[in-house]
Amino acid sequence: MSTTLPAPARTHVPGPATDTDLLEGGRARTYLVKTLGCQMNVHDSEHMAGMLEQAGYVPAAPAQAAAEDVDVLVINTCAVRENAADKLYGNLGRLASTKRSRPGGMQIAVGGCLAQKDRAGIVERAPWVDVVFGTHNLDVLPTLLERARHNAAAQVEIAESLQVFPSTLPTRRESVYAGWVSISVGCNNTCTFCIVPHLRGKERDRRPGEILAEVEALVATGAIEVTLLGQNVNSYGVGFGDRHAFGKLLRAVGAVPGLERVRFTSPHPAAFTDDVIAAMAETPTVMPQLHMPLQSGSDRVLRAMRRSYRAERFLGILDRVRAAIPHAAITTDVIVGFPGETEEDFAQTLDVVERSRFSSAFTFQYSPRPGTPAADLPDQLPKAVVQERYERLVALQERISAEENAAQVGRTVDVLVAQGEGRKDGATARISGRAQDNRLVHLSLPAGLGADGAPRPGDLVTVEVTHGAPHHLVADSALAPGGTFRVRRTRAGDAWQARAEGREEHTHGTGGGCGTAAPAPAGPVVLGLPTLGRPSV
User: Fold this and answer.
1) Is the CB of residue 332 less than 8 Å from the CB of residue 354?
2) For residue 531, what pLDDT is reported?
3) Spans of the chain, pLDDT less than 70
4) Is residue 201 within 8 Å of residue 239, measured between CB atoms?
5) Is 38 marked as binding a ligand?
6) Does 514 count as an annotated binding residue?
7) Are 235 and 228 spatial neighbours (Cβ–Cβ below 8 Å)?
């Protein structure tokens, strides 16, 4: 996934700028953050943008962003896939000429997982990079940019452990109607293919009260949907010894007044407990959606991956979820070609995928990551074998996705209209958004609908599904006489409109969004969850 911040464009009210923030003529420096990787990286980029704006930088206008014509360009990197380094250095190679040709100059900063891994090697390979910073010290970005300008030399600073919990940092939210909320950082699992624990460290859980305060702050600024984030969300509570803490947290977040949709990603099958299923089923605001990473359907391969569950346990979880939440859409991750995977192992994966009936799947060809145990395993598979198996898996999942989505035809769904979800909306005269189960829905508007009645991003539209394709649903019910089409204009849509019109209050409160965040509770917060002291960072 590749995401570029900021979006959408809006009027910016900068804070006090220092001499180093301003260019000749008093113009504030512009910035652009480009993100490669997962939702955690996207949320980290929101913190980077928030810190830059608090320091006096302003977001690039859309035309500037498209041309990368900015004073500061930050690349937030991923290290999960083998081609992550190729993507980074390909981008940096292209930016070298952009930087040379830009009359006013440009600073280039590299952060994220690959920066944590490669460190000063980035500057050695791309000496035109000005700043390199890691996953544990996002807060140093503005300081390093200023230091690099002052010293006219690259600045590399990589912390070995978390310095400041990211959620305490200023945040420039990508969306005003839906937001990410981190409940933990790091991971305690030891999957042999994964480099994330090495780069993001051991799991650190946030206090329940701090999480709820951030959710309440998001709601106060217009959001009606939040997604709880963690490398392994359902192990939340490991730091204070409550294995049922995540289920309790889901119920507490779901009860926040004004919040209409709660999602979370990603859980781990080994730690997924029935109390979480109960919390999902019994909390109306928790959406009927679950991302449950499979990785392999072969018990032998799962053992080699150090995934502490087996295929039948995985399938049992899905059965219990569907029994409690019949319309739940379940998605997954699958890795093809893990070292030593035989044709029999792969056939077992195909069997589990067939039985699981995933609505969609993220499928990956295994790639060795230096520093992971799997990179040194024997029996690394030939590329041709991995590719052929990958194509078979994709074909199977495409068929299942098409069948599962076709089964949605005739259902009435509530779609949260989103910005940028439908790349072909202009050509098809539709708008797009997400149903309760997170399926992407492209929907038509009735003829003669005026601007005052048209749904905005953040509004909710009730429609009937008329067609199912492998990767999306179509809801053209508004075009039929008497067809289902109802718009509920929301305060989230109001917030989107305020941002689009430049009326958004913009004070960069800590963690909460573009407005002032709700303060953390002064005393203990007890919601059926243990009370924690603040992390000592």
Assistant:
1) no
2) 34
3) 1-26, 81-82, 504-537
4) no
5) yes
6) no
7) no
